[in-house]
Amino acid sequence: MIGYGDRARTQCEVVRLFRETHPDLPPLNQGTISKIEAHYREMGHVRKVPSKRQAVVDDDTKLNLLLALEENPITPARQLARDRPFFFDDTLNGARYLRLLQHELMPVLCHLFPNPLHPNLTDERLWFQQDGAPPHYAAIVLQYLDRIFPGRWIGRREV
């Protein structure tokens, strides 16, 4: 159920009401309504995102996060994910994700899980896992993971 107008309505009712209200527009289907509803539940609004991406977080918030990290540079891995988000000025792609792995994540992992024989690598008992987002399986990322975590990473392996 989603709210539409003056009360909560089913998706079928929303589709019917849209057709009645906007007969000159192409009809909506329930899949479209489901996507709009999911976006609303996740984001709290249904406005379209402008084609030029705007910063999701303002500069003051970024500065506060960085200052907090400066105060406590040795942060447990779970807190790292919670307290230190990474901001990209543009859409994440394979090259940007690789730089994130090389310059942000690996130094932290090498510090938290040191390898006495190879200081630039993590402990050989550590496994790395990522989901199937397109930047995660760019060829340069897969080659890097194969080199840094040989046989010890989980995720899509084909391009």
UniProtKB/TrEMBL annotation:
InterPro entries in alphabetical order: RNaseH_sf
GO molecular function, one term: nucleic acid binding
Superkingdom of origin: Eukaryota
Protein name: DUF4817 domain-containing protein
Originating organism: Aromia moschata
Phylogenetic placement of the source organism: Eukaryota, Metazoa, Ecdysozoa, Arthropoda, Hexapoda
